[in-house]
């Protein structure tokens, strides 16, 4: 029996965002957002993130640039933390955010760099056991 779109999407979501994040998010689902959560799992995590046209690293870089340019700070921080799972490096993200400065504006990039520095500081602290 083949896996459902939801199951494939959930595997992909976990591989990018990590089990801890997905478990926390799943515990917070209510009747208000249950349909939305199913939609993004089946269509974003199964549909977009499973395409073989980009690697997870490339998709991560594009996603971060778009989130930064659009000012979606919470999602940006989440996807910067997800680079631990996608293979996008700090150099990749720095270059993507420089593109944001040119094509989306310096204020958007300034905010994104602040968020990236904070996310990487948290990652570094966690890796040192702080």
UniProtKB/TrEMBL annotation:
EC number per UniProt: 4.1.1.44
Gene3D superfamilies documented for this protein: AhpD-like
Carboxymuconolactone decarboxylase-like domain segment(s): 36-117
Record key words, sorted: Lyase
Stretches of the chain forming a coiled coil according to its record: none
A molecular-function term among this protein's GO annotations: 4-carboxymuconolactone decarboxylase activity
Enzyme class: lyase
PANTHER family from the UniProt entry: 4-CARBOXYMUCONOLACTONE DECARBOXYLASE FAMILY PROTEIN (PTHR33570), CARBOXYMUCONOLACTONE DECARBOXYLASE-LIKE DOMAIN-CONTAINING PROTEIN (PTHR33570:SF2)
Protein name: 4-carboxymuconolactone decarboxylase
Species in which this protein is naturally found: Thalassospira aquimaris
Gene symbol of the encoding locus: pcaC
């Amino acid at each position: 029996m083949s896996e459902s779109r939801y199951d494939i999407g959930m595997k992909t979501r976990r591989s990018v965002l990590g089990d801890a994040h997905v478990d926390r998010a799943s515990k917070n689902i209510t009747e208000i957002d249950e349909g939305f959560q199913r939609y993004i799992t089946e269509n974003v995590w199964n549909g977009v993130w499973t395409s073989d046209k980009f690697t997870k690293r490339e998709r991560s870089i594009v996603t971060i640039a778009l989130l930064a340019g659009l000012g979606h700070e919470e999602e940006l921080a989440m996807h910067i933390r997800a680079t631990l799972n996608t293979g996008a490096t700090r150099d990749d993200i720095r270059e993507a955010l420089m593109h944001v400065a040119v094509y989306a504006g310096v204020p958007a990039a300034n905010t994104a760099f602040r968020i990236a520095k904070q996310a990487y500081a948290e990652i570094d602290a966690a890796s040192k056991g702080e």
